[in-house]
Protein 1
Amino acid sequence: MYGCEAWTISKQTQKKLEATEMWFLRRMLRISWTAKKTNDTVLEEAHTTRLLISKIRKRQATFFGHVMRREKLENLVTTGMLEGKRSRGKQREKLIEGLEDWLKARKSLEAIEATKDRKKWRTMIANAVKQGT
């Protein structure tokens, strides 16, 4: 998870991370791959929920808040507000778009404004972690 603050997590990447996490749980609980147990029963046995994606999103949100409060070059790069032409083809997902979905913010501007007040930003992150992904 080193450097996960800068990842952009697409739906395909999220599915792969969840599958890897489930594989880890099955290995730790010594559940054979031939045993017909659903993922829900494995999660119940482990007394856990899906932790990997929510931990990554939390780290991304704290890093994003740090970058937005500094208001330097990293701020411009993260928000994607640079001059020039856009590249051809489908545009890549930005970090702020993924956080916007996770935090359930109506607009990216709302998330950016929330980073100015640390207390408000931390409560937004805590609420998103409680709700899960």
Note: The chain is about 65% helix and 0% strand.
Protein 2
Amino acid sequence: MTEANQKVTIIEYPKCSTCRNAVKWLKGKGYEVESRHIVEETPTADELMQLIAISGQDMKKFFNTSGEVYRELGLKDKLASMSDEEKRELLATHGMLIKRPIVTDGRRVTIGFKPEQFEEAWGGHA
């Protein structure tokens, strides 16, 4: 596969400026970007389990801790006592609870967007 057609999936909220910046960055590096709306096509609990495993990150990193839904549900105090399964189910039922964007090529997963993080993960088209 050449660099020009390396494909990634971005799970995003299109109105989110951070997500738009991530898409712009990826396209600028020559990626073919398949966009998926985080609310209309929220990842299932099984998909989340796979994304979390590939990312190597703690599940807490997948929560949008600065979001309205997170605050409304009082999750700051509840997450610690929830099982991983409960957390995944919660994320799968509330797309806006998921930190965005999530980018994956099936072998790698990044959460959120910071140019230096993207450069490390996606800059080399590994």
Note: The chain has a mean pLDDT of 93.
Protein 3
Amino acid sequence: MEKPDWAAPLAEAYERSLAYLTTLPDRPVGSATDRLDLRAALGGPLPEAPQDAREVVARLAAAAEPGLVSTQSGRFFGFVIGGANPAALAADWLTTTWDQNACLSALAPAASVVEEVTGAWLVQLLGLPAHASTGFVTGGQMANFTALAAARHEMLRREGWDVEADGLAGAPRLRVLAGRHRHNTIDRAAGFLGLGRAAITSVDTDDQGRMIPDALSDALAESDRPTIVCTQAGGVNTGAFDPVGDICAVAHEAGAWVHVDGAFGLWAAASPRLRHLTAGVERADSWATDGHKWLNVPYDSGLVFCAHPRAHRAAMGTRADYLIHGGEGERDALDYTPEFSRRARGFPVYAAIGALGRAGVAELVERCCALAGSFAEQLAAHDGVEILNDVVLNQVLVRFLAADGDHDGHTRAVVERVQRDGTCWMSGTTWNGRAAMRISVSNWSTDQDDVDRSVAAILRCARPDAEG
């Protein structure tokens, strides 16, 4: 076997990684360059000859770093991205080093067992049924896709139709009921699965985006078609929770499948203080969440759970003569995810839970929510600033009022100024037709000083005399 020089390129990567991570508290959070400069730095003709590996790594890092958004920073508050804690990041390095294809137990025994163990831990942390099956996917999109594939299988099976064998042509038509403020991954999953986005009926929600059970009951009564109900644990704008327990009672009475999209909000179940928000969640049929949000595991790390493991495996599993399928007591990951070849995502999740423990996960979630409350309290104390949501979790919607009445234009301008300022980074959104700044607090390293510095920057950018 050839013995390449591992030490030099890995040393270069380690040194640059450590320099990047240790300077995060002082780095501007947004990108420091534009795409033209990035193309100039990273582009060029196709290399014709081999090059020194360490020099390649050094050039890549130097050229790419100005174009990075510091999502690992404690002052990054966009898109519910939680960064990566040290144990999870270190385990992710090992994952890359070991380079296991985690599709089959025979191919990656350690990865298989880690996913088995970690799946059981996650089910306990999130208060889900002990028998629920687990799949490690890329993110919330594929978690929702996988769960809805299991739902599609089971609802059509009850109608006497084998969708995996016979497809959808001629099948009983499914419908999907979901709240008006659902995440777009539900619509995309319906499209991917051949149900069609037109199969989704929007159910009325209250002023915080919570599905109204009576409205769901009315929608269920409109048709006797097989139905999937999609609920939400933590709305991406307000952080609000559908009353999942009440929804399960109504939906199950009508014979429907209930799926919970809990990309970040499902983690509230790990907190004794916040668990009431997820009351009844264990009564659902499937659940989706993200490890790279509140567990702070590196991308990619989505998680799907199903209370009907047989339906989960039927929707995802495959068999082939050239594969070595696991025997009794052996878990093949390809039976639970859409992918064949795939990264061993269980290792970083294992490390994150091991480093935090149950108490650490609860503390992380509760601290982020307390800091979100601090954001809202400090900003609301100033004239011309309006908080649009009840801050029940880690999401804060902020609107900035303009003297000329163009509140939408002023709010969008403030968001852009904050992003350019570099102290912190938030994304914009639209809530009930009104422009807003969306603050998402989900990083393990965020502290009160980060919030205070960010509030000062936001207020500075919101002043009427701030640069346009």
Note: The mean pLDDT is 97.
Protein 4
Amino acid sequence: MAPSDRAAQISSHLNFPTGMLAGQTAIITGSGQGIGAEAARLFAKEGAKVIVCDVDSKKSEAVAESINKEHGEKRAISVPGDVSDEKYFPVLVKKAAEFGGGKIHIIVNNAGYTWDGVIHKMSDKQWDTILDVHGKAPFRLIREAAPYFRVKDGEPRCIVNIASTSGTHGNAGQANYSLAKAGVVGLSKTVAKEWGPQFGVRANTIAFGHIATRLTAAKEEGAFIVTPNGDRVALGIPGKQLDERKGADPKAAFKDIPLGRPGTATEAASAILAVVSPLFSYVNGQTIEVTGGRNM
């Protein structure tokens, strides 16, 4: 699309009469809860057709049903599955394309969890599992969806890989997660360089800081996930560690965040919406940190 045409497209969208994502189809992995679910709801409100994906089929279906009920029409479908299963992506992409009338415009690689351990005690299983979920899975989905992105139809195409400040700055106890999240930064830049020139595909990374989700809650709250190998992994941060951060002041845990608080799932999802929207049409290959000012 010529620059003048792109400018006209942006100008025509400024009022967003039918939504910033009207006519687009989006796959959002890990959208049965948390940030992914909020992103699915926001995308649907902006006119997109959304494919809700989660390893938990009940949660995935519940999100899709709630979206369709809210809008009084079918704006979402649930295609549950495990992103560490290579057989999942052909099914996911096929159903997404069918729902989108033969087109897919947006991929948000959001699915994931943490399985922490200090370097000298981390097992190969911990290492391989987290790299598969956060590194190999985004690559496999992008590769599978390539025929729907390597097209010249003048319509926008955008990929967002969700990372973390653990990937941009490192984090004690998260060597596996940090490496995987650093890796998707390179993946985004490579997609931007390979698919941007001929096909206009934008690919960016969003690195979240402290967002209030099950991954940052106290482990004692009981959130967990079962890995493909059947291991039960407790999610969250040990309560003792959280207490040490707070000390006598409950707000002390966030003293290194200029805004003085964690972000919400809706705020995180809003950042994703911004990046895939027409307002970010000239932002490509970038890593955007959403941290409330931490690490600036």
Note: The longest strand covers residues 157-164.
